[in-house]
Specification:
Layout (H helix, E strand, L loop, with lengths): L24 E2 L9 E2 L14 E9 L2 H17 L3 E8 L1 E4 L6 E7 L2 H8 L2 H4 L2 H7 E9 L13 E9 L2 H17 L3 E5 L3 E5 L7 E6 L2 H8 L5 H10 E9 L3 H7 L3
Antiparallel strand pairs: 1-2, 3-6, 3-7, 4-6, 5-12, 7-10, 8-11, 8-12, 9-11
Helix pairs in contact: 1-4, 5-7
Length: 259
């Protein structure tokens, strides 16, 4: 964990080496029903001015020390405009071979705000404490929209790390399953945009991040008759690791003094 795979200093912010990630969904400005498939491009897409999400899969080795880190560094996240969407919930593998650990998801106003925080003086004093108490994979993904707040109920999030073998057929899946997902309360927070590996060895090609009203909303949708044919179509043209993690309500964040 103590080695960052790529240089993410601010001077290299716009010229980091490509990770061969190509986006395949766009057009969320007016309605998520307008999401469309994009063909892969050779160049790494730039970060947009929309929100980004840092996804952390962490193995805690010293619970006490890590707890002190969580309490101590939370103020730096808030000062940089970041928010906790999930904070240490045990990830559940729904599909695939990846074995998730504890999941942390942050939302940031834009990519620059994340890099300013990550490389900034305020957070630098907390990094060694995290390194000493844990190991983690950390990625940053380009988002589409802000995550909605939930006052009392814990939302849920699904992280889909997917490799597409047939983009044309996968485009049918994208359009076809949207109605059932929306009816179940699911929302795309990130879908095929730029990815950057910040720490660790997890290097996904495409990432989709969904928000759900709660855990059962996802489970009921995933097992539903409406989604079944689309899930089978997706399986026929792609392979994925799908991880489910519970998020934080506003009440929980207030109790834990988290932004």
């Amino acid at each position: 964990m103590q080695k960052t795979l790529i240089d993410i200093s601010r001077r290299n912010f716009n010229i980091v080496a490509p990770l061969a990630m190509t986006g395949f969904i766009s057009g969320c400005a007016s309605s998520q029903s307008n999401l469309t498939l994009q063909q892969p491009v050779a160049d790494e897409k730039p970060w947009t001015g929309k929100p980004v999400f840092s996804i952390v899969d962490v193995q805690v080795n010293d619970g006490k020390a890590f707890g002190e880190y969580v309490v101590g560094h939370s103020a730096t996240v808030a000062e940089a405009g970041g928010k906790f969407l999930a904070a240490g919930a045990r990830g559940e593998s729904i599909e695939g071979t990846r074995k998730p650990r504890n999941i942390v998801i942050h939302q940031w106003p834009n990519a620059q705000s994340f890099f300013d925080w990550y490389n900034g003086a305020a957070y630098s004093q907390w990094k060694p404490k995290r390194y000493a108490a844990s190991s983690a994979d950390v990625i940053l993904v380009q988002g589409l929209i802000d995550s909605e707040r939930s006052e009392t109920f814990s939302p849920a999030f699904t992280i889909v790390d997917i490799e597409v073998r047939d983009p044309q057929v996968f485009g049918r899946y994208v359009q076809g399953h949207m109605q059932s997902l929306s009816s179940a309360g699911g929302v795309f927070l990130a879908a095929g945009g730029r990815i950057q590996v910040i720490e660790g060895t997890w290097s996904p090609k495409r990432v989709i991040l969904h928000r759900w009203p709660d855990e059962m909303a996802f489970r009921n949708w995933y097992k539903s008759d409406e989604y079944r044919p689309w899930r089978e179509l997706r399986h026929s043209v792609s392979s994925a690791n799908v991880v489910l993690a519970n998020g934080l309500s506003d009440a929980q964040k207030i109790q834990r003094k988290m932004p």
